[in-house]
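Translate structure to sequence.
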């Protein structure tokens, strides 16, 4: 599918050319533009889900081992707002623990509840089986309320690429001026996108200190988890076989977890097969 972004990216293009980047390099970079949905609790966009709320799951689905972040009503999501191969309806439930414990495990999960499925309310605190006070305090600060969608655009926020097995990273292949282009995007994007959003569906991942693609970190962590027997394969080592399902800047919503960002990635084949249980979450956290 080809998306028409109209003149929306003109401020970025003008800024990049003003800084001496050849127009052909700028236009080549713009071919990377992807549609995405940015979600906020304010604004006048359509309500497409909510942060928090009751946890409603089918009886045969166990409660995930991570805190409940919120839900997305796929039928309410405007058509074409992302380029993800999402189901046309049903609920997508997101779970995450917004901290990186350095272990070869997923720090979150995704549950897809088909439309019309029989559901029952479950214990929101079941994930905290040891009843740890600090975690309870954290979870109580998770945001609550309806989520409104904005049709947005996304360009890479990273400029380097590090092939598996290599110790050094270089520019994104085919884009020798990637670093300068990312700088131009960082300086103009607040006037182009919904910069107040803390939850994003699709597009490119972002985090506080970014160098290489956070989705690549998801792939590497998933591969490590398989090697350690903590995750069932297969896992493609090629980041092109994966997509960013969602990004949550938890640090903006949860006091004490500043800088924390959750990246939910999923392999394209698993997304097409509706295997949302195969989504893998990695967290950037700089305490």
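Result:
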């Amino acid at each position: 599918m080809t998306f028409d972004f109209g003149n929306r990216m003109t401020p970025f293009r003008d800024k990049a050319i003003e800084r001496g980047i050849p127009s052909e390099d700028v236009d080549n970079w713009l071919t990377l533009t992807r549609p995405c949905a940015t979600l906020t609790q304010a604004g006048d966009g359509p309500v497409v889900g909510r942060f928090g709320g009751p946890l409603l799951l089918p009886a045969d689905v166990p409660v995930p081992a991570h805190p409940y972040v919120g839900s997305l009503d796929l039928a309410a999501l405007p058509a074409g707002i992302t380029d993800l191969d999402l189901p046309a309806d049903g609920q997508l439930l997101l779970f995450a623990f917004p901290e990186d414990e350095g272990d070869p495990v997923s720090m979150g999960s995704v549950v897809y509840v088909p439309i019309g499925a029989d559901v029952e309310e479950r214990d929101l605190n079941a994930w905290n089986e040891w009843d740890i006070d600090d975690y309870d305090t954290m979870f109580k600060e998770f945001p609550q309320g309806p989520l409104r969608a904005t049709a947005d655009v996304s360009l890479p926020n990273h400029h380097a690429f590090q092939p598996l097995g290599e110790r050094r990273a270089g520019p994104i292949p085919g884009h020798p001026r990637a670093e300068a282009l990312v700088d131009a995007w960082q300086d103009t994007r607040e006037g182009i996108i919904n910069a107040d959003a803390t939850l994003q569906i699709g597009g490119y991942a972002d985090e506080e200190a970014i160098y290489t693609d956070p989705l690549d970190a998801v792939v590497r962590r998933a591969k490590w988890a398989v090697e350690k027997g903590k995750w069932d394969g297969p896992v493609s080592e090629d980041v092109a076989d994966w997509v960013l399902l969602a990004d949550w800047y938890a640090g903006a919503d949860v006091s004490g977890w500043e800088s924390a960002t959750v990246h939910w990635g999923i392999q394209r084949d698993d997304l097409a097969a509706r295997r949302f249980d195969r989504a893998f979450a990695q967290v950037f956290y700089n305490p």
